[in-house]
Amino acid sequence: MDEVTGAQLIAESLKAQKVEYMFGIVGVPVIEVAMAAQAAGIKYVGMRNEQAACYAASAIGYLTGRPGACLVVSGPGLIHALGGMANANMNCWPVVVIGGSADRNQETAGAFQEFPQVETCRLYSKFSARPSSLEAIPSVIEKAVRTSMYGRPGACYVDIAGDMVNAKVDRIVSCCPSPPVSLAHHGAITEAISVLKAAKRPLVIIGKGAAYGRAETALREFVEKSGLPFLPTPMGKGVLPDDHPNCVAAARSRALLQADVVLLLGARLNWILHFGLPPRFDPDVKIIQVDLCAEEIGNNVKPAVALLGDINSIVTQLLGGVRNDGWKYPSDTEWWNTLKDKIAANAKISKALALQSTMPMNYYTVFHHVSQLLPHDCIIVSEGANTMDIGRTMLNNYLPRHRLDAGTFGTMGVGLGFAIAAAAVERSENKNQRIVCVEGDSAFGFSGMEVETMCRYNLPVVIIVVNNNGIYSGVDPETWKEMAKMGDLTSIAPPVTLLPEARYDEVMTAFGGRGFLVRTVEELRSALQLSLSDWERPSLLNVLIDPSSDRKQCPWLNPNVKTSVHLQ
Ligand code: ADP
Ligand code: MG
After folding, report:
1. Known EC number(s) (predicted)?
2. 3-5 and 168-170 beta bridge pairing
3. Alpha-carbon distance 204 to 209, whole Å?
């Protein structure tokens, strides 16, 4: 055993736990930690705001199954990261935040950027601790990494006293194994199969827990053998391809409303699924709930059958039951016909909107052309209100964990951090996969300076800003000028408005990336083709659309009220 510094011990402890990526912003007292991380073989990505750094580190957790690390300085640095920790917890994604903090002899002394960090992080994490000695660092980091992945995944925090960074200690580190996997009780499996077999209008809902749990292979076989229709949640998209014949995403409202039995695979009955309650669900719907978190079972709806355990294993158990007697839900039922009719009708409406040749373009036209050009294996990152909602219905996913969006917490500002994480994984694993970030103009603004990070590391992310001059909607440049003449804009400009035709493309060119100002279908197609052929640097397409463009009307929503996230 040889002696190392505290910084080296932190880095080697993370590496020993197979943490391969670190995102952060350095300063006193953590510069040495970032340098030691690189020396230990961890990839370090310096970001521009700790919030985006934490979003990126948590996306690594979702994409790879091992947490990314987020390295921040004390006080304000850690506080910026709290948004990322909250978002990771809400999404059930593992991440480990390492925060520098006051020296051991300066606690409560009014030290530089001193803050009650461990206490603060408790609300934002599953585990929050400050190693009491250098010798304790490896075991606290092991516990943080393990806790972030075991049970329901989430955020963990390790506080590092500033004076520990350069102190010397003997090293001892060992790795925690992958999370243990549990099966559902076999009696409950038998019951679930009999409920499914008795269903008249069954529906499988695939959530991002199924994506995180890497259940895609077993699930595909289960869906194909059982013949059941399935509906992905936003980030459940791609676990099975969106163009799979059993996918009923285009009939979402109908499928949810009329299903009599729902097999719920790794999705919470929260706002994303309308709480599993009327008016969006049948009041008598029988839910077969699959989750590894026992506390989740029964939230909002009492399940007909609860299958507690790992989705991949449980789907394999269900598959065993279906395989044994060759049961299959018939393809010629009234339920399938209803769903198929609805899918065809909805496709017609979207197509009509997409083919409108009005100028400026509407959302549907933009997404129609974007979807034609995107490669099937690209990772789509998306955020914004209309941009994310309409984009989700029109941009297909064909592979699991290839969609990252505002998620359970509906967080705006996650996109660029997520895209940077995906690009870092793409680069290190040589996947030759495009990362495409579809952003509303407002959403882009939250972490816009991260384009510098993309340019600095030559990460060839393609950013498409669907620019409607505002939050939900905006005004055109002429109206804006008229308003400015009428008086002080702070008194009269609608709070939803942003600067009309803002040149977000120039933010990208400022740092050496490609920028495109796009107004027409032709410009959109050629800019996207050029961007997709460039593997050297990032691109940003600033797509100016009609500031009053809206989603097609949905009977569930009052057209006069616009809320932040609509799901149809
Ligand atoms: P969505 O956003 O798709 O609706 P949620 O994030 O609400 O999904 O729900 C995901 C659920 O999946 C969480 O309740 C989480 O506990 C669960 N989960 C995560 N991984 C697994 C796994 N491997 N097996 C079973 N359940 C899982
Ligand atoms: Mg907008």
Report:
1. 4.1.2.63
2. antiparallel
3. 13
Q: DSSP string covering 236-262, please?
A: GTTSS-TT-TTB-GGGHHHHHHH-SEE
Q: Is residue 99 within a helix (H) or strand (E), and if so which, with residue range?
A: strand 95-101
pLDDT digit string (tens) for 331-357? 999 999 999 999 999 999 988 988 988
Q: What is the token pair recorded at 403?
A: 């969609």
Q: How far, in Å, is the centroid of ligand 1 from the Cα of 501? A: 39
pLDDT surpasses 90 at 549: no
Global pTM value? 0.94
Question: Residue 408 and residue 386: Cα distance in Å, rounded?
Answer: 17
The 10s digit of each residue's pLDDT in 347-384 is 999 889 889 888 999 999 999 999 999 999 999 999 99
Residue 495 burial (10 A CB sphere; 0-12, 13-18, 19+): exposed
For 512, residues 6+ apart whose C-beta sits below 8 A from its C-beta are 455, 537
Joined tokens for residue 321: 């039951």
Q: Which atom of ligand 1 is nearest to the CA of 270?
A: 7
- Residue ranges in 21-161 assigned as alpha helix (H): 31-39, 50-64, 76-91, 117-122, 137-149
Residue whose tokens read 């500031």: 547
Please give the ipTM for the structure prediction.
0.96
Q: Measuring from each residue's beta carbon to the nearest atom of ligand 1, which residues come in under 6 Å?
A: 91-92, 152, 207-209, 212-213, 233, 235-236, 266-268, 270, 272, 291-293, 296, 310-311, 408
Residue nearest to atom 20 of ligand 1 (CA): 209
Residues belonging to the chain: 568
Q: What is the pLDDT of residues 108-132, one digit of tens each?
A: 788 888 899 999 999 999 999 999 9
Instruction: Give phi and psi for 133, each to the nearest 5.
Output: -150, 165
**Buried/exposed code over 26-65 (b: 16+ C-beta within 10 A; e: otherwise):** beebbebbbebbeebebbbbbbbbbbbbbbbbbbbbbbbb
Helix 311-325 × helix 186-198 angle, to 10°: 60
Q: How far apart are CA 131 and CA 169, in angstroms?
A: 14
Q: Can you name the residues that pair with 305 across neighbouring β-strands?
A: 288
Please give the single-letter amino acid code of residue 463.
I
d(C-alpha 416, C-alpha 439), whole Å: 9
Place of tokens 């030759």: 432
Instruction: With H, G, I as helix, E, B as strand and everything else as coil, classify residue 556.
Output: coil
C-alpha radius of gyration, the chain, whole number: 25
Residue 553: per-residue pLDDT: 56
Distance 423 CA to ligand 2 centre (A): 25
- As given in the structure block, the two tokens for residue 259 are 């299903």
Contact (CB, 8 A) for 380 and 422: no
CA of 441 to the centre of ligand 2 (A): 5
Residue 498 CB partners (closer than 8 Å, separation 6+): 441, 442, 445, 469, 470, 471, 474
62, 178, 181, 268: which to mutate for ligand 1, most atoms within 8 A of CB?
Answer: 268
> Is residue 416 within 8 Å of residue 52, measured between CB atoms?
yes
